Predict the structure of Glucose-6-phosphate isomerase.
Amino acid sequence: MYKNKEKEVVMMAHLSFDSSALKKFVHDNELGEMQAMVNAADSQLRNGTGAGADFRDWLHLPSEYDQEEFARIKAAAKKIQADSDFLVTIGIGGSYLGARMAIDFLHNSFYQAQTPEARKAPFVVFAGNSLSSSYLQDLITLIGDHDFSINVISKSGTTTEPSIAFRVFHELLVKKYGEEAANQRIYATTDRARGALKTEADANGWETFVIPDGVGGRYSVLTAVGLLPIAASGADIDQLMAGAAEAEKAYVDPDLSKNEAYQYAAYRNILYRKGYTTELLENYEPNMAMFAEWWKQLAGESEGKDQKGIYPSSANFTTDLHSLGQYIQEGLRNLMETVVKLDTPNHDLDVPGAANDLDGLGYLEGKSIDWVNTQAYKAVVAAHNAGGVPVMTVHIDEENEYTLGYMIYFFEVAMGISGYLNGINPFNQPGVEAYKTNMFGLLGKPGFEEVGDQLRAEMDD
Ligand SMILES: O=P(O)(O)OC[C@H]1O[C@](O)(CO)[C@@H](O)[C@@H]1O
């Protein structure tokens, strides 16, 4: 494995935030001048004096997680591993993205195509995150006669997409195993006491796990929402929580010279006020593409409200340098970039030699491919910087559970601070109801008839 001394230092830090490429965009005095505002945001977040204070329980999840529930999650994961080839994980938004990104991040890039023996765990598949009938049928076909279990995840228990998918897979499960045995294969992650799913689970004896009241969907990956599917996939959730717990300690001091998560929040705010209104989260590892999708919900639902907020987008490098790269270099100058850069890959290879040198790559013969990747990253930072795009970098040492837990907490705490810095409630999401109301109207849901009539009339116009 390729390592150097500099990387060893980074490894000890697990994660480090690098703002050195911002010099052209942010003066030296500006960060310090944010300190008073950051102190106020910190107080809102830590003391519950800000809007949305009831949804801050994610802050102490890593250190205070219910140990009885944690043990049950691990036991359920073991049972699923023993009796299932597939775990159908049903949920959407915060009830989906965390588990999905973590499983991609923590496993072989071709996890999905591995044999069960190589994977040493069931194939965790996802449903209920779209309304595509083809997707559902393709998944049914993939599962075929294999053994499977279901983890249905919904705080409300009435979200349309997962509810439909759950009906489909529940029916399939009962058909395959009979009602009683099917009930032993359903794991419901939902509200502690209320809601449709909790009621149904209790009535049927399904094992249930809790989405705590004070944790919103996008902050729930370190609850059973993420932990059960992640554990079932064979990943080490003890290490995931240990990394997050370390970050919980690391990002507690509001002093901007010490707290890198707060620095990130402050720099985003400084840049946003200068007109950099879109942020691209970028990676140089294909298995981090879903991490950006998780981050987009975290940032978008937390900050995009009251007609303001940074628009969260993403790009996957180096592939998107050959598509979005043109726009980033020369398009509308409202972009900022945050790169998640992996410093030590799980595997490294050398560029092979070739008898002839027709592709002109001879000069790279014997060089590590990760070294090439890192030079590409450095080259892109310099090019985008010159082109007028501020770039920040979050360096992570390795792709493992510990680092992922650490990074999850880094971004969560940064978004909380960032939201308060922008004068909004970072923990609600009132805007997501608008499409639901219209959809319910068009679908004819009882109580929404008037909306439906009005929409149909407008559409006929
Ligand atoms: O867990 P539920 O209630 O099904 O909600 C799923 C997702 O829907 C939202 O409420 C809004 O779309 C998200 O915040 C949440 O993560």
Observations:
- The domain at 15-50+243-425 is CATH 3.40.50.10490 (Rossmann fold).
- Residues 92-95, 154-156, 159, 162, 217-218, 301, 429, 432 surround 6-O-phosphono-beta-D-fructofuranose (CB under 6 Å).
- The mean pLDDT is 95.
- The beta strands are 15-18, 86-90, 123-127, 148-153, 186-190, 207-210, 278-283, 311-316, 335-342, 391-396.
